[in-house]
Amino acid sequence: MARTKLLTPCTTSLLPPCGGREFLQAIYLVLLLAFASWANAGEAQPAAADPALEERVTALATELRCLVCQNQTLADSNAPLAVDLRNQIRERMREGASERDIIGFMVERYGDFVLYRPPWKTTTLLLWIGPILLMVGGLAALFYRLARRRREMAKTQLSGEDRARAAALLAGDPGSEKK
Description:
Layout: H1 9-12, H2 21-39, H3 51-61, H4 80-94, H5 99-110, H6 125-155, H7 160-171
Helix pairs in contact: 3-4
């Protein structure tokens, strides 16, 4: 008599065996991944009381560099210093300061580095001319290297005897290899 294996509800499903450690780990992993996004959730920013003021603040903040991130604008950065600087801009605008006054204050306090588009003056001359100088220097080095290579190739011309030997080797003449 052949023995038949009894099928239980756990063995007919696609899930691992009931009560298995792997099953509990899988459930834990699914729950962990499902609720992981909550860990990074923050408090929603309150809606601006004055949308026109917020638009001005954002426009000005895109012209200023975050001093912490250095490659982001104040508007893009979430660094605590950037938030404080945006709040300072907002307060100064509420007090009636113009964009030029606020930029002047920021430059006086943090230097030209705070500007995303630094002004044209002697202290920022290298910022403006530096990329052009690097490109010209790179092209000069490339042309020098190519010219030197061309001169070296001209010096290494084959003699008549070497040319004849190479032609014989290419033609398949076995006697030319013994020279």
